Structures are given as structure tokens and as C-alpha cells.
Write a sequence for this structure.
């Protein structure tokens, strides 16, 4: 899915209570074909599942308002179970009957359902994800879900396209909800919930922990795989490191170069548009922050082999990765999901087991492994709340309400995954397997 921002919106179709541009959002603007039987099965499965879960369902017509949670302490949950309000139950069940969880997400994008506590609702569903479908029907999963499209594979060309479809949306868009450091990965907070004004310091705490793991100091030759908008390179160069940072995003590179120049560190940092597989040389330290999720399982062996090839004798890799349970990863790897269709094409979150196996096979040894998933939930809460508050500004950039609902669902869905402990995030230190020394 390529999100474009045309200069003028063409005709729209009204579904649920939301106008949908059929050129920009073809699969949201039209209801999918689904047999009466599949729709009926979806309705029955969901009715039984929802009746067992700590949530409420409500039928409201198009345009019905859905109250947001009452304000309280930052990050505090809503009192009472979350409510799923169906504005168009027929469309909701038809989409799920046709496309499963992709249909669930597209139904939200179309405005066919809402919740007074979106994160709370999604946390309930994530916690009970394995109980939603009766065991006998799980065996028919392959007939229900779609395979990932071949064009999303992370070949040299495909990886560039996949990265640009997300990260080249607009630097101004990301600036609307990220903290001033423009860090797009989990922070590490001093306290939870985060104290007001603590976001950037928490992002720097995360970056500094990674630089410490890789022993980045004066004179270190550092390679960063995945530039982002340059904050890690800036902090590494401030320590006296000589940094090569690579990205496939033209938008990110342009802003990173500007930020590095403004920091007076252009003499210490090179930012190149380059696939990690094409990097040459050897480096005392390699750092990669939440980039492995974009690599794809097919290329994990190449990724870790490349880390080993680029690491100078005695050097270390600092890796930050989101993780999920191994069995869930195997199911996700075979499935075209709503996230892979609309948010991160070609991506797959690895399991801790996969990280150990792939790194070991490549000749690397993990000497440090720390998880802090609750900090990612807090990071996502801050991003999501800021994004919602900036709705008018995001709209002025050309991103319509369907996009905004998609992005809010993505952030809420991710936050729920961490709150349900379905997801985790880990910082790892890796060295060549024949490197002496103890774990850190």
C-alpha cells in the first residue's frame, strides 16, 4: 500500500459515517465480496468471543458519537470494560468474514466501528488472541488468511520500496507526534508513567545505553544501520566517534544531514543512501535500532552474516529489537496482516528464539539481553496522544481522516501488544563467537 497525498481529492464514497476516497483507499472504500456463510460464521464467532471477554458491545448508527475515556492520571486505564461500538454491524462482519484481521482494521479505517477506549479494547483482544477462534476452526486458518504478496519481499529493490512507503511519508508528519529528538523507537523512562517533559531525556537514555553496550567512545569507528532522523549519530559523534550511518529513506537522510550540520558534527558523520547488504569495511561498533523488524525472515541470515562481516576484531554490535513469542511469529510470517498491508510492508517481528538462532548461525554470541516492554507501551501512549491532539495539523499536511484513523489504530494496536505482553522490546549486545570475555 502506497500512501500518497494528491493535490486534490477525487470523489469520495461514504461508508460507516466516514467519507472514503476510493482512489487513495480502494479496499476501504468498497466492501469485499464475502459469502453469506463466511459472514455468518464471523458474526457467530465474534458474538461468542465477545460474550466471554471483559468488554461491552454496542450498536450505534452512522454518526453516533463514542465518548473517549475520562481524563485522569497519564497512562491510567479507563474504569470499567472498554466498549466496542458498531456503527455498521453488517459491514463489520462482512469485512472480517472476507479478510479476517485485515478486515477488522479496514472496518475501523472506514468508520464502521469505534471504541471509548481503543487501547483497552485492543489490549483485551491481544490478551485473548488465541481464544477468539474455537480450536477446531483454527485448523482451517490457512483457508481464511492471505499469504504475503511476493512484491513485499525485501530484495534490494523491494527493501527500498518498503522503507520508502513508510518512512518517506513526510518528515513533517513524524515531527507532529515524535519528541524533539525525532526518535522513532522505544524510549527508556526514569519512572512510569513518564513525568511531564521527560520524553527526550528518555530517548537519550535509550541511545546512550546502546552506545555504552557497543563501547562507543573517542575514535570509535561506528556503523549505524538505519539512520532514522540522525539522533543516535549525533550523540555518538558527540562522544568523538567517527560515524557512517546508512538508510534507504531519502526523506530521513535529508533531515538527518540538516540536523547533523546544525549540531556542528558533519565532519564526524557520513549519511549514505545504502542498503546494509552493500556496506563495506570493518567497524569497531555496529548499532541498529529497531531495524531488524524491517528485514524480513527470509533475509535474517544475510542480516546477521553482514553484521559479522562488518565487525572488526574485538568489536561489538548493539541491537534493539521488538520481539514476539515464537509460535506467534511463525503464524505471522505466513500471513498478510493489516500491519503488513498498510503500515510496515515486508516486515516481521522476530522472536527471542529466532534472534539467538540466527545470530549464532552467523558466528555471533549474545552477551547482554535486557527487555523493557512496559517502556514501549508508554512511548506509544505519548506518540498516540500527541498524534490525536495534532489531528488538524496532520490534516493540513494532506493526510485525510482515513489515514489518521489508520495511524491511530496502528499506534493503539502496538501499544496494546506491549500492555498485553504479547510484544516486548530488547537491547542486545553481540560479539563474534570466538571473542573472549564474560557477559555484560
Amino acid at each position: 500500500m502506497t500512501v500518497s497525498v494528491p493535490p486534490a481529492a477525487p470523489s469520495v464514497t461514504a461508508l460507516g459515517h466516514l467519507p472514503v476516497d476510493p482512489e487513495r483507499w480502494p479496499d476501504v472504500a468498497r466492501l469485499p465480496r464475502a459469502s453469506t456463510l463466511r459472514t455468518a460464521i464471523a458474526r457467530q464467532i465474534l458474538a461468542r468471543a465477545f460474550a466471554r471477554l471483559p468488554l461491552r458491545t454496542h450498536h450505534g448508527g452512522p454518526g453516533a458519537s463514542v465518548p473517549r475515556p475520562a481524563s485522569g492520571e497519564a497512562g491510567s486505564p479507563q474504569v470499567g470494560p472498554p466498549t466496542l461500538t458498531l456503527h455498521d454491524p453488517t459491514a463489520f462482519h462482512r469485512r472480517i468474514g472476507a479478510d479476517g484481521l485485515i478486515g477488522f482494521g479496514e472496518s475501523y479505517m472506514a468508520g464502521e466501528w469505534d471504541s471509548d477506549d481503543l487501547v483497552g479494547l485492543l489490549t483485551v483482544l491481544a490478551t485473548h488472541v488465541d481464544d477468539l477462534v474455537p480450536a477446531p476452526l483454527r485448523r482451517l486458518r490457512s483457508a481464511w488468511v492471505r499469504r504475503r504478496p511476493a512484491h513485499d519481499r525485501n530484495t534490494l529493490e523491494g527493501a527500498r520500496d518498503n522503507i520508502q512507503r513508510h518512512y518517506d511519508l513526510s518528515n513533517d508528519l513524524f515531527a507532529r507526534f515524535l519528541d524533539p529528538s525525532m526518535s522513532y523507537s522505544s524510549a527508556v523512562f526514569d519512572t512510569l508513567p513518564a513525568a511531564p517533559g521527560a520524553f527526550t531525556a528518555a530517548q537519550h537514555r535509550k541511545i546512550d545505553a546502546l552506545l555504552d553496550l557497543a563501547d562507543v567512545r573517542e575514535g570509535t569507528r561506528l556503523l549505524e544501520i538505519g539512520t532514522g532522523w540522525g539522533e543516535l549519530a549525533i550523540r555518538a559523534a558527540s562522544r568523538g566517534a567517527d560515524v557512517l550511518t546508512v538508510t534507504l529513506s531519502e526523506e530521513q537522510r535529508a533531515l538527518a544531514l540538516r540536523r547533523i550540520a546544525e549540531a556542528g558534527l558533519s565532519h564526524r558523520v557520513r549519511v549514505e543512501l545504502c542498503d546494509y547488504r552493500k556496506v563495506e569495511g570493518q567497524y569497531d561498533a555496529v548499532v541498529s535500532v529497531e531495524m531488524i523488524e524491517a528485514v524480513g525472515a527470509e533475509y535474517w541470515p544475510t542480516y546477521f552474516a553482514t553484521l559479522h562481516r562488518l565487525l572488526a576484531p574485538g568489536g561489538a554490535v548493539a541491537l534493539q529489537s521488538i520481539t514476539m513469542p515464537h509460535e506467534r511469529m511463525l503464524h505471522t510470517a505466513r500471513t498478510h496482516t493489516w500491519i503488513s498491508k498498510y503500515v510496515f510492508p515486508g516486515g516481521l517481528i522476530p522472536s527471542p528464539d529466532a534472534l539467538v538462532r540466527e545470530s549464532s548461525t552467523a558466528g555471533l554470541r549474545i552477551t547482554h539481553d535486557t527487555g523493557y516492554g512496559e517502556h514501549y507501551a508508554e512511548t506509544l501512549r505519548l506518540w498516540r496522544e500527541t498524534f490525536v491532539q495534532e489531528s488538524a495539523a496532520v490534516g493540513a499536511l494532506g493526510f485525510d481522516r482515513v489515514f489518521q484513523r489508520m495511524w491511530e489504530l496502528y499506534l493503539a494496536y502496538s501499544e496494546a501488544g506491549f500492555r498485553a505482553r504479547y510484544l516486548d522490546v530488547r537491547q542486545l549486545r553481540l560479539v563474534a563467537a570466538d571473542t573472549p570475555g564474560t557477559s555484560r
